[in-house]
Amino acid sequence: MLVAAAVCPCPPLLVPEVAAGAAPELDALRAACLDAVAVLAAARPDRLVVVGPAAASGPYPQGAAGSFRGFGVDVDVRLGPGEHAGERALPQSLAVGAWLLGRTSWSTAPVEGLGVAEPLDPARCLETGRELAAGAGRVAVLAMGDGSACRTLKAPGYLDERAAAFDAGAARALGSADTTALAALDAELAREVKAAGRASWQVLAGAAEGAGLTGELLYDEAPYGVGYFVASWS
User: Fold this and answer.
1) Most CB within 10 Å of its CB: which of 46, 126, 162, 177?
2) Cβ proximity of 3 and 139 under 8 Å
3) What CA–CA distance (Å, rounded) separates 51 from 60?
4) Judging by DSSP bridges, how do beta strands 111-117 and 58-60 pair with one another?
5) For the residues of 144-197, what is the DSSP string, one character each?
6) Are the C-beta atoms of residues 19 and 30 closer than 8 Å to each other?
């Protein structure tokens, strides 16, 4: 049963060493993410699943390692406490999630990761979430993923006039824990406006069906032309 969830974006710039001189620009975003993770801890789950976009779908065990060395900084992370486990490196989204858990010294419950292929069909995303929540005990989810990357002319995906409306709808759904609205997000439109979080959000929607959670939107901005949302469900 799902007892709590947090939604956070996953840009490497959340890691101050990666952002370097621009790090203060995202201080409010980092603070909101840490607040959302704190709500997960307060729910005292039996396990935490970190879900994020990846090149291919698949699980990652506690202790799986990730790195931001590809961005020129000497920063390594592990998914939850404990010794190194698993042979595959964490995808970027889960590495950012692992960094957030490290910043909060997460020790409340065992942690596992789930990479979700960005093109995954919405129906399969929802079913994956249902399977996740049906596991034993009290489950919490940390859903990593960005909104559109087409909000301005200087955005990574250039300007798409549809991006702002897509992000507004996603923000409303995430802020109100509206699983029906999340399930209805258009996968093709999400792809076209480069909203990498769509699949993660729909996995969360499946996990939260019937859980009766209420939501709060903690952050909704588009620095650098990319939609970043932070939400807490409890």
Assistant:
1) 177
2) yes
3) 10
4) antiparallel
5) E----S-SSTTSTT---TTHHHHHHHHHHHHHTT-HHHHHT--HHHHHHTT-TT
6) no
Q: Report phi then psi at 144, rounded to 5.
A: -100, 140
The SS3 call for residue 19 is helix
- Could you report the per-residue pLDDT of 146-204, keeping only the tens digit for each? 999 999 999 999 999 999 999 999 999 999 999 999 999 999 999 999 999 999 999 99
* Rounded Cα–Cα distance for residues 173 and 68 (Å): 31
Q: CA angle, corner 93, sides to 42 and 68, nearest 5?
A: 110
In degrees and rounded to multiples of 5, residue 127 shows phi and psi of -65, -40
> For the chain, how long is the longest CA-to-CA vector?
47
Phi and psi angles of residue 54, each rounded to the nearest 5 degrees, phi first: -150, 165
Q: DSSP H helical segments within the chain, as ranges?
A: 16-19, 27-42, 92-103, 122-133, 163-175, 179-183, 187-192, 198-208
Q: Encoding tokens for residue 75? A: 């920063």
- pTM beyond cutoff 0.90: yes
Reading the block at residue 18, the tokens are: 């990666």
**Is residue 82 scored above 80 in pLDDT?**
no
Mean pLDDT, the chain, as a whole number? 96
Cα of first residue to Cα of last residue in the chain, in angstroms, is 12
At which residue do the structure tokens 């759904």 appear?
173
- Is pLDDT of 2 > 90? yes
